[in-house]
């Protein structure tokens, strides 16, 4: 799998940035590939190579009904010639769900499990049951996060981003944050905005980085106060921010991940979190397909239209 477009670094200009003497840019990973956008491109890349190396013909993975990871895995499996199985949390009664409709269209077989089984998805017995049912598969965990995904996300930063002092990313399962942490320079601070409610993410990330033997050279900050009530929860000010950001910069943000990061960024700029002369890079991790699901669930239209083929 290759980039269709090299990720570009797009500078953003605004009076507040000038007033605070800050530079801001956004790394447009949402543009790298039309079907496998954002961090998914990096998380899936080495996993697919590994599946091929192991001679597997089937990919099995897990996700919620509006998951970006399910969407991307379905698309990329088809491109790379794998059969794909999506184990989905909850009931499959909503036939109009755009994410699942798309996954089916891309040939993914959907297997719905109750919440208890889903919680136990990493246990031996659940995996064995899945093997009995579907046969031999290459397993990619929920959200795509594993060692190979982190190897992929550690390639997001590089020479072109070396002059930035601060890098911001949303945190879900933490695989993207861990990969960015791995390639961070001593002069850089990585700020992760958790989209989930709770402090547990700090310990989870610590464990993940320990397990992957990641010893970051720069500073790490994890922010847990921008979840808007929890995963996929929202408040009107989040949607207003996404609308404002689109009007100002013509950059689409989704309400689940990048919108929360963007909101956090702007709050932090207003509150003088960044010393003057900081050069801030925000990572657009993609996820725009989730906006269709958001509109489907809430009836709220976002200011941009997003269609994948
Ligand atoms: C668009 C988007 N951004 C950010 C993330 C968070 O990434 P991670 O799970 O690696 O923390 C996800 C979820 O995987 C996502 O879909």
Notes on the structure:
- With 309 residues, this protein is α/β, with parallel strands linked by helices.
- It has 2 domains: 9-34 and 146-298, Rossmann fold, CATH 3.40.50.1100; 39-144, Rossmann fold.
- The chain is built from 12 helices and 10 strands.
- It has helices spanning 15-20, 39-53, 68-80, 98-105, 115-119, 124-134, 147-153, 175-182, 200-211, 236-249, 258-270, 289-298; strands spanning 9-12, 23-28, 58-63, 83-89, 108-113, 138-140, 166-171, 189-194, 219-223, 279-284.
- The strands form 2 sheets. It has a 6-stranded mixed β-sheet. Strands 5-4-3-6 form a 4-stranded parallel β-sheet.
- Helix 3 (68-80) runs parallel beside helix 4 and helix 10 (236-249) crosses helix 11 (258-270).
- The longest helix has 15 residues, at 39-53.
- The radius of gyration is 19 Å and the shape is globular.
- It binds pyridoxal-5'-phosphate.
- Pyridoxal-5'-phosphate binds next to helix 3, strand 7 and helix 8.
- Its cofactor is pyridoxal 5'-phosphate.
- InterPro entries: ACCD_DCysDesulf, TrpB-like_PALP, TrpB-like_PALP_sf.
- This is Pyridoxal-phosphate dependent enzyme.
- Residues 26-286 form the Tryptophan synthase beta chain-like PALP domain.
């Amino acid at each position: 799998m290759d980039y269709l477009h090299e990720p570009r670094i797009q500078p953003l200009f605004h009076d507040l940035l000038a007033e605070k003497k800050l530079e801001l840019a956004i790394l447009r990973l949402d543009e790298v590939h039309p079907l496998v956008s954002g961090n998914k491109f990096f998380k899936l890349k080495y996993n697919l190579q590994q599946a091929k190396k192991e001679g597997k013909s089937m990919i099995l993975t897990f996700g919620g009904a509006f998951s970006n990871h399910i969407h991307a895995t379905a698309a990329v499996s088809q491109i790379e010639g794998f059969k794909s199985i999506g184990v989905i949390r909850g009931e499959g009664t909503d036939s109009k769900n755009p994410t699942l409709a798309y996954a089916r269209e891309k040939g993914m077989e959907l297997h719905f499990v109750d919440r208890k089984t889903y919680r136990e998805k990493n246990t031996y017995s659940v995996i064995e049951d899945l093997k009995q049912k579907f046969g031999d598969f290459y397993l990619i965990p929920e959200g795509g996060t594993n060692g190979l995904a982190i190897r992929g996300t550690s390639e997001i930063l590089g020479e072109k981003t070396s002059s930035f002092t601060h890098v911001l990313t949303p945190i879900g399962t933490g695989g993207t944050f861990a990969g960015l942490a791995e390639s961070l320079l001593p002069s850089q601070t990585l700020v992760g905005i958790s989209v989930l409610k709770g402090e547990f993410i700090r310990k989870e990330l610590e464990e993940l980085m320990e397990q992957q033997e990641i010893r970051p050279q720069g500073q790490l900050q994890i922010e847990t106060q921008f979840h808007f009530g929890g995963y996929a929860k929202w408040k009107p000010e989040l949607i207003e921010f996404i609308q404002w950001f689109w009007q100002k910069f013509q950059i689409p943000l989704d309400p689940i991940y990048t919108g929360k990061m963007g909101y956090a960024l702007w709050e932090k700029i207003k509150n003088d979190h960044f010393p003057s002369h900081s050069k801030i890079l925000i990572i657009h991790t993609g996820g725009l397909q989730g906006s269709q699901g958001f509109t489907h669930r809430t009836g709220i239209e976002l200011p941009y239209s997003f269609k994948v083929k």
